[in-house]
């Protein structure tokens, strides 16, 4: 048994230097690991910060599970990032008592920092991590790492949003998770379904190239790593998991969400500016799985804008006709409903290249859900206008509705692209209609 107690502050300048040198060496072809590997094949990292209550039962349960079910030698690494409670002492004791268990100590807090440090130091050919609360059923661990051991995939992630997943959690977290992943699909055009599930694995040769490119050291670390990997054409395998929410989670949702939005903006600028050496991450002789990412975003937006202009003119004309007889709110709802149906039909054919009757009803129902967002924005703006200026005339109402519709249009495009027509390529890009 070996205890690894080390202090590891992060130096981003050295990471940038490593990224430059890593970019000069292409990834080799994927190959399966030998059946009799002399050293641990899998290193499972458990990042912790002040987890004195959950750490010991987690590590003991994980160790017992791996000892009983995993056919290769393994290692468990507890990555303690700046805990101030009894977590370091518990981690040290576990490392002494359980064979193949180690721990490292970081002076700074940050889940991404803990993973970056532990993965960078590991010699195991497959690197994984899971959350200390064990929200994800460990039965998915072998299916998670098997595609990496066999040489089939580069990265594997657990997903709570796939059809075969079984998830128990409150509506608040469910909505936040789906909105976050939908926003990723709408803005960065990602194809993976769940960026935030604390259950992931990566081949070490891939991690050596990816980690120097990942800037975030906190909660956005996972998302940034996956986006860069997908844009580079690396193969990401998804495993549906059984997942039970931890009611004692101490994640600050608001600050984490704001940090994630800043990370998305930063990563989007880096990708758009070509500042990441993605070509060096592609394996020789393999198909470029990143072809078409993002799927014709600019032409799509132009066609969506053209449809939006026509829809807005139709909406304003209909509103003006209905306003004298029905009143402002009723006229707004009826005009918006009619224009939403027409808008979904036009975008279905012209923007996203979908033809035929298959899925028409489903697309229209989802389009109506997006319509409700627009209705809430426009009705709310009218209500605010009438409260602030009771004598406002039709011209002021129209100007207010135009402003509200601009915001609703942006949200509608993101919803259509990420939810109503997910994964649809531009009809003009693929060269054939999508049915």
What is the structure about, briefly put?
With 435 residues, the chain is of the alpha/beta class. It is 52% helix and 11% strand.
What is the topological layout?
Layout (H helix, E strand, L loop, with lengths): L11 H11 L19 E7 L6 H15 L4 E8 L5 H11 L3 E6 L4 H11 L4 E5 L10 H9 L5 E5 L6 E3 L2 H18 L10 E5 H7 L10 H11 L4 E5 L1 E3 L8 H20 L24 H30 L1 H24 L8 H29 L5 H27 L6 H4 L5
Parallel strand pairs: 1-2, 1-4, 2-3, 5-8, 6-9
Antiparallel strand pairs: 4-7, 5-7
Helix pairs in contact: 2-3, 6-13, 10-11, 10-13, 11-12, 12-13
Write out the strand line-up for the largest beta sheet, numbering strands in chain order: 3-2-1-4-7-5-8
Give the strand tally.
9
The profile of the biggest β sheet is: 7 strands, mixed
Radius of gyration: 25 Å
Please report the distance between the alpha carbons of the first and last residues.
59 Å
The structural class is alpha/beta
* Low-confidence segments: 1-23, 289-296, 424-435
Helical segment count: 14
Shape label: elongated
SSE order: HEHEHEHEHEEHEHHEEHHHHHH
Roughly how much helix do the residues carry, as a percent range? 40-55%
> What is the average of the pLDDT values?
82
Could you walk me through the main structural features you see in this protein, from its secondary elements to its overall organization?
- It is a single chain.
- The chain has 435 residues and is α/β, with parallel strands linked by helices.
- Helices cover 52% and strands 11% of the residues.
- The chain has helices at residues 12-22, 55-69, 87-97, 111-121, 141-149, 171-188, 204-210, 221-231, 253-272, 297-326, 328-351, 360-388, 394-420, 427-430; strands at 42-48, 74-81, 101-106, 126-130, 155-159, 166-168, 199-203, 236-240, 242-244.
- The strands form two sheets. The chain has a seven-stranded mixed sheet, with helices on both faces. Strands 6-9 form a two-stranded parallel sheet.
- Helix 3 (87-97) links the parallel strand 2 (74-81) and strand 3 (101-106).
- Helix 6 packs across helix 13 (394-420), helix 10 (297-326) packs across helix 13 and helix 12 packs antiparallel against helix 13.
């Amino acid at each position: 048994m070996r205890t690894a107690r080390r202090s590891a502050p992060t130096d981003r300048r050295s990471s940038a230097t490593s990224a430059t040198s890593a970019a000069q060496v292409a990834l080799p072809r994927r190959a399966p690991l030998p059946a009799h590997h002399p050293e641990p094949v899998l290193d499972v990292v458990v990042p912790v910060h002040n987890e004195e209550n959950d750490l010991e039962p987690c590590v003991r349960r994980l160790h017992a599970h791996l000892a009983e079910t995993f056919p290769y030698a393994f290692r468990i690494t507890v990555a303690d990032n700046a805990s101030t409670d009894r977590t370091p002492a518990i981690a040290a004791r576990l490392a002494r008592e359980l064979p193949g268990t180690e721990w490292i100590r970081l002076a700074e807090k940050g889940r991404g920092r803990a993973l970056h440090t532990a993965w960078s130091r590991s010699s195991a050919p497959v690197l994984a991590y899971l959350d200390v609360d064990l929200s994800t059923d460990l039965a998915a661990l072998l299916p998670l790492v098997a595609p990496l051991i066999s040489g089939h995939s580069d990265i594997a992630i657990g997903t709570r949003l796939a059809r075969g997943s079984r998830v128990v959690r409150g509506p608040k977290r469910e909505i936040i998770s789906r909105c976050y992943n939908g926003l990723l699909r709408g803005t960065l055009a990602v194809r993976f379904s769940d960026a935030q599930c604390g259950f992931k694995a990566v081949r070490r040769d891939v991690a050596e190239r990816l980690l120097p490119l990942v800037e975030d050291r906190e909660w956005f670390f996972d998302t940034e790593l996956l986006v860069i990997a997908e844009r580079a054409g690396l193969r990401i395998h998804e495993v549906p998991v059984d997942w039970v929410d931890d009611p004692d989670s101490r994640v600050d949702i608001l600050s984490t969400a704001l940090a994630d939005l800043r990370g998305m903006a930063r990563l989007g600028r880096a990708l758009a500016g070509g500042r990441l050496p993605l070509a060096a991450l592609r394996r020789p002789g393999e198909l470029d799985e990143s072809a078409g990412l993002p799927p014709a975003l600019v032409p799509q937006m132009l066609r969506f804008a053209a449809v939006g202009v026509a829809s807005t003119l139709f909406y304003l004309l209909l509103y003006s006709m209905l306003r004298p007889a029905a009143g402002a709110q009723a006229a707004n709802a009826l005009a918006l409903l009619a224009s939403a149906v027409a808008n979904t039909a036009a975008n279905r054919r012209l923007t996203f290249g979908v033809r035929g009757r298959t899925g028409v009803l489903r697309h229209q129902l989802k389009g109506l859900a997006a319509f409700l967002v627009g209705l809430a924005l426009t009705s709310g703006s009218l209500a605010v206008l009438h409260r602030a200026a009771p004598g406002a005339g039709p011209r002021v109402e129209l100007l207010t509705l135009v402003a509200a519709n601009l915001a609703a249009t942006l949200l509608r495009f993101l919803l259509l692209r990420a939810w109503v027509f997910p994964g649809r390529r531009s009809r003009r890009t693929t060269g054939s209609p999508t049915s």
